[in-house]
Design a protein that fits this description.
With about 180 residues, the protein is mostly helical. The protein contains eleven helices and no strands. About 25% of the residues are buried.
Length: about 180
């Protein structure tokens, strides 16, 4: 799903290394739909398990966004329910932001696993190895949320991530 770049030459004022073609609205809408479907598939148990393993910064950012105090009893008992309820009611842009905060630990883990160069523009093989790596310590729906969020945020590698969304390792249960 690569898109042709707009015509440009050496006299352009933008950085060619950082140039990302505009994503057609229908592709972006499809990515957002996949993210929403993935977020809707998250269970309270998925979220609570993820939050218990998540770095402190992730829990802190999420509870700040939710405007709640992080009480250890509360984490065990129900932050997952609160996040699930809140994330389902957000606008598409806010869903991307909340999903990015929710999966920030996976982003950091991915950067460490792939290394800086590969993390910026991973190959399909890099992404395949990354999915295997992430699935060793995270549930498929959390890994899918990370990938769907990154694609919906229009990362330079979004087209490659689109292919991963149909990977059987990341299939949503019941669908």
């Amino acid at each position: 799903m690569s898109h042709p770049e707009p015509a440009h030459d050496d006299n352009c004022e933008h950085d060619h290394d950082k140039h990302v073609p505009d994503t057609p609205p229908e592709v972006q809408a499809e990515r957002q739909t996949r993210l929403t479907e993935t977020l809707n598939a998250l269970t309270v148990q998925d979220l609570n398990a993820h939050l218990q393993k998540a770095p402190d910064q992730v829990r802190s950012a999420l509870t700040q966004r939710l405007a709640v105090r992080l009480d250890p009893k509360f984490v065990k008992g129900g932050v997952g329910r609160l996040i699930r309820t809140r994330i389902r009611g957000l606008s598409p842009t806010k869903q991307i932001e909340m999903a990015a905060e929710l999966t920030a630990g996976l982003d950091h883990e991915s950067a460490e696993f792939l290394g800086e160069e590969s993390f910026e523009l991973p190959t399909r093989d890099d992404l395949d190895r990354l999915v295997d790596h992430l699935l060793k310590s995270h549930s498929p729906v959390i890994v899918r949320a990370y990938i769907a969020c990154t694609a919906a945020a229009d990362a330079p590698v979004a087209a490659e991530l689109d292919h991963l969304m149909s990977d059987s390792r990341l299939a949503l249960s019941g669908g």
